[in-house]
Amino acid sequence: MRELRTILLRVPPLLAGLVERNLRQRLVLSGVTLTILGQLHDVAELARWRLEAPDLIIAGCYGGFEAGAPLLAFSLDMTQLLGPGPADVTALTPETLAREILKIAGR
Amino acid sequence: MEPTDGPVTTEPPRISDIMVVSALAFLRESLVELLGRVAHARVCGEAATLQHAIDTARITKPSIVLFDVAFPGGPQAAAQIAAAAPQAGLIALGITETEEDVLIWAETGIAGYVPNTASVEDLIALIGEISRGGQTCPARIAGSLLRRVGAGRRAKAVEAPVLPPLTRREMEILRLVGAGLSNKDIARRLSISLGTTKSHVHNLLGKFSLQRRADMMAILAGVSPAAN
Question: How many other C-beta atoms lie within 10 A of the C-beta of residue A50?
């Protein structure tokens, strides 16, 4: 099993729960587990968590900070998934989010 | 037969058939997936647009509509969907839990709401609670709702017509006018002359500041008299 140590940044509680619960099953079937290291409310908190060397950051906001790890972010209107590359944009659905996470996990 | 002591059975969660309405694919599909695994819940439909929501509500007849407050049209759209599914309780998902926002949605006729600070566990618990007729909310919200209901009732009381002082005979005649009797019938009923009856009716119109007998009958029937 490939473990992705993940930080959620400024993701509202309900969405964070949906990401964790719904994605877990999709990812496990592909041999990946998502370990949530922390749910951060402020970009300023990210600096402290870099020492944990997360494999992935899932953010409810995009830009204005140095991620230091592969970043997947929701657009402001929650219709698009941004990242990990600066030009990577796709429609945001549970399936596309799982697919991008699996790419980051090398699956 | 002797009653037996035993554990008190708690009321099971009602939940039942849910329709999910959100224009956001991620939220909608995730909720459908989540709620499909919740005990006593069955997702009977989902919709991303208003017309689809109205059509789906009519066909599937959900007992609960889970409505994303970010849906285009907001409360107005919710009201249209609710009209298409009058049997359903509409739950507003993602309300900012301020008194103003809760009151706006309460006046739309929601059965309950899930605040935007809710977790998945909160969401599931609240849907169950609302399906059983309850709603957990902060004390200040409950107080605000009570004050709004009270203010509405006081406003209605102020609008209600106040009777001017009337004699016993005038009260009798007023009652019979309200019953739809003509002056002739009233005179016969009370064993008084037609002229005396007309005089009493004329005095009553004066006390109510009305021009016509029909207006007095309208007030007694609880409707607004016609404008002059």
Answer: 13
pLDDT of residue B228: 37
Owner of token pair 């473990």:
A3
The answer to whether the predicted template modeling score (pTM) of the entire model surpasses 0.90 is no
Contact A78 B26 (CB under 8 A): yes
> Bridge-partner residues for A40, per DSSP?
A9
Mean of pLDDT values over B72-77: 94
Task: Indicate if the pLDDT at residue B227 is higher than 60.
Answer: no
Residues in chain A, pLDDT under 50: none
Buried b (16+ CB within 10 A) or exposed e, A70-98: bbbbbeeebebbbbbeeeeeeebbbebbb
Q: Give contacts of B30 with chain A, Cβ < 8 Å.
A: 15, 18-19, 22, 94
Cα separation, A80 vs A59, whole angstroms: 12
Question: How far is the C-alpha of B180 from the C-alpha of B220, rounded, in Å?
Answer: 10
